Amino acid sequence: MPLAAYNATHNTAGWAEQAISLAGYAGQRVRVRFLLVTDNDGASGMGWTVDAITVWPAHAIQEFRPALKIEDFFDTYFALARAGKLNEEGLPNLLHMAVIMREYDREIRAVHPPRLVQQMLMWSLAPIGRLLGYRGAFPGEAQGQYT
């Protein structure tokens, strides 16, 4: 069922902004599809561009069973974030990441690279990271005591 439509019967040289409320779908799974219908053969321009899509606010609830040390992982990660130890993408440097991922190998795994590559990197780089002083866990430091 179409939720909203933007109709343009002429060429637009600039961007056209469209805001659509999904509030009526709160708590439901929503799939968003973009459809271009035209009688133009596409030869006169680049066509249609969708850019800068934002869905907000978004909340996710995740349950971990068995929990293992997942709370410690998140405490560690947020302590690093508060201390400014993460890059623009929200990640620590590669050596520190290897130490952390080795510490929490049973609790959490990255989607990529493939698992075998992760293990090779983790087991080869984590000892170097530890030698340089990186720690994998920061118990008690979730309250901003990271140094």
Describe the structure.
By secondary structure, this protein is an all-alpha fold. 27% of the residues lie in helices and 0% in strands. The chain has three helices and no strands. The chain has helices at 70-82, 94-103, 115-131.
- Beta-strand portion reads under 5%
Oligomerization category of the chains in this entry? single chain
What structural class do helix, strand and pairing data support? mainly alpha
Low-confidence stretches: none
| Mean pLDDT figure | 78
Number of helices: 3
Principal-axes geometry comes out as elongated
Largest sheet: none
The helix content is 25-40%
- Through-space gap between termini: 53 Å
Give the SSE string: HHH
Q: Count the E strands.
A: 0
Query: What does the radius of gyration come to?
Result: 23 Å
What's this, in brief?
With 147 residues, this protein is an all-alpha fold. 27% of the residues lie in helices and 0% in strands.
Which descriptors apply to this entry?
0% strand, 147 residues, 27% helix, mainly alpha
Give the SSE layout.
Layout: H1 70-82, H2 94-103, H3 115-131
